[in-house]
Amino acid sequence: MMTGKTIEFERKIKPETLSDVKIIVDESTFAGRFRQDDTYYDNIDAGYLLLSRGCWLRVRKETDRKGKHISSFGLKVPRDGCLGRLSAYEELSSLDAHGALAIRWHLGISKHAPLSGRLLCFYGYAPVVRFQTVRDVYRIAGDPTFTLCVDRTIGCPVRKDGARFTYEVIEVEKIVHTTGMVRMAEKMVLQFLDKKAARGARFTNAVGGKVAQYLKFYEPELYKKFFLQHIG
Asked: Which residues form the CYTH domain (predicted)?
């Protein structure tokens, strides 16, 4: 888990079968299984202030396989001005003092106020998306900044027609700390995917993110407004 200000380059892919998953994670080191309870907030009265800017404000409660609990606030800000299938974000975390201060600045919250769900509500932010994810993390070549995250959503609400949202993808993610390293990160991720494809892994490339797909499933009009023109 990264803290403070980082830049995250990632590609989300959807393997066709379990055998393809095995090819993709082969030669990587298993780093642990985590259960994540994520709630995304936005200022609805302000016309979905964050979504309209391609930003994500998340409160995450995470539990590892040893039962350790970690709660944090996170804000992702796009680096390339696009929505949906973003390749690069500036990622801020409340687990770091600089990140916590930067989150308050982006949200227009007093720098002295402790971050909390109650504080977000006071400033007009409300929950818009919530889901749980089981995440298996793998390190590529022993590099803690180069990871595979095998994600599977659980416990999503049942839609009126009886259907339930599911999302199963692998995130190939490289973390860097300066803008000048983003192209290098992109190259590393694409080379990794090319290598796995050459070894026979079959997968759909550039899959949309969890929040976008969640809204497409439960709130199609909201999805059309903020995502359709960018990711189809």
From this structure: 7-179
